[in-house]
Amino acid sequence: MTASEFSTALLRWHDVHGRHDLPWQSNMTAYRIWISEIMLQQTQVATVIPYYQRFLSSFPTLSDLANAHLDDVLHHWTGLGYYARARNLHRTAISIMNDYAGQFPNDLETIISLPGIGRSTASAILALSDNQHHAILDGNVKRVLTRYFAIDGWPGLRQVEQLLWQHAEDLTPKSKTAQYTQAIMDLGATVCTRSRPKCNDCPLHSNCLAFKNNTVSEYPTSKPKKSIPVKKTIMLLLRNSENQVLLQQRPPSGIWGGLWSVPEADCKVDNKSISQWSQKQLHLKIANVFFAKPLRHTFSHFHLDITPVYASVIGDSPVIMEQADTVWYNTSEPDSRGLAAPVKKLLDTHNDVIAKVKTGVTT
Predict the structure, then answer these.
(1) Spatial contact of 117 and 95, defined as CB atoms under 8 Å apart
(2) How many C-alpha atoms does 284 have within 13 Å on its Cβ side?
(3) Of 124, 118, 70, nearest to 93 (Cα)?
(4) What angle do CA 24, 83, 29 make, to 5 degrees?
(5) Calpha distance 354→326 (Å, rounded)
(6) What is the pLDDT of residue 355?
(7) Which of 149, 191, 189, 195 is nearest to 168 (CA)?
(8) How high is the pLDDT of residue 320?
(9) Between 1.10.150.530, 3.90.79.10, 3.30.70.1450, 3.40.50.720, what CATH number should domain 230-359 receive?
(10) Total-model pTM
(11) Could you tell me the end-to-end alpha-carbon distance of the chain, in angstroms, rounded to an integer?
(12) DSSP assignment, residue 281?
């Protein structure tokens, strides 16, 4: 099958079987495509759609995003994970407003130079919004090509990725680039899936080497496994007399950068140690300490085992209230701020846990 036959078969399939009603497929501006492509990194379409719709409702234009507070942007990202994506969106919007007169750049190298945008994402933005002739190589495309050409080796390896880029460029047609780009992404997402691929529905299966050799499940080659380390932390849910919970804003970089979180204690998991740590680090006296069952939150490179500790604060603390990165958070009427997923979960269930503790029902 020639490159022309490959693209023709794929385009014909997409006309009938492709996805045509995704929210970012209407009014396909560079801004809207950019937001969708960033959200879709490491995240399934079904998960992204409601986040995308809320995000675009609050930030319909690039200038709206640039002028927004980072807290508000992170709030709209809460639960989506990989929060550096949201921080980079905000940084990029500000950069475009300041350096490019508010106009989204329309050349590949300039877009790649912006925070959080790689080659494939930049190519997708230009191909889908402006029909420019650029190949993409996201996870779906990698899966299609590794199977079609039976390419051995983890796609994250430089030599394998270079080979995949060459194939992607050779196959991308100079006309109908936008349609082809959407078609190959759709094929990977709906037919050439990671598990249980629908090979008999694929318009390319008669020339797919993995299908011919009955080795589809072997591609793409998995990343070499490494043992994932486990880290532990103590999260303190400290409530004042109004049942508000103490939150602190995390530093702008690192895990959960810029998000709001409950204090994390670096001490032993016992009543005396927790009380001493709160007195020394937060200048807060606490009582009614309750240790909940640990919960695990998994990142891409480590597990985090969290021990939630609930306690009431005795008296007032003017030192805490004077700190700009510290607030008392009303869990019954939550405001708009960025929260890490496990922190949001703890805050959402805070009142229920306290009610059970007070009644002696803690299981």
Answers:
(1) no
(2) 25
(3) 70
(4) 20
(5) 22
(6) 84
(7) 149
(8) 61
(9) 3.90.79.10
(10) 0.80
(11) 62
(12) I
- Six token digits for residue 249: 């804003």
Residue that the structure tokens 């319909």 belong to: 60
Give domain limits for the chain: 3-218, 230-359
Kind plus residue range of the DSSP H or E element containing 258: none
CATH of domain 3-218: 1.10.340.30
The pair phi, psi for residue 347, each rounded to 5°, is: -70, -40
Range 184-208 burial, b when 16+ CB lie within 10 A, else e: bbbbbbbbbeeeebebeebbbbeeb
Structure tokens belonging to residue 318: 């003017």
Residue 361 pLDDT: 62
Query: Tens digits of per-residue pLDDT, 157-202?
Result: 999 999 999 999 999 999 999 999 999 999 999 999 999 999 999 9
The CA–CA distances, whole Å, from 15 to 8, 28, 192 equal: 11, 18, 17
How far apart CA 140 and CA 186 sit, in angstroms, is 8
| Closest residue by Cα to residue 29 from 54, 62, 51 | 62
d(CA 75, CA 141): 31
What confidence tens digit (pLDDT) does each residue in 46-97 have?
A: 999 999 999 999 999 999 999 999 999 999 999 898 899 999 999 999 999 9
Q: Show the low-confidence residues of the chain (pLDDT under 50).
A: none
Predicted confidence at residue 58, as pLDDT, reads 97
Please give the positions annotated as active site: 37
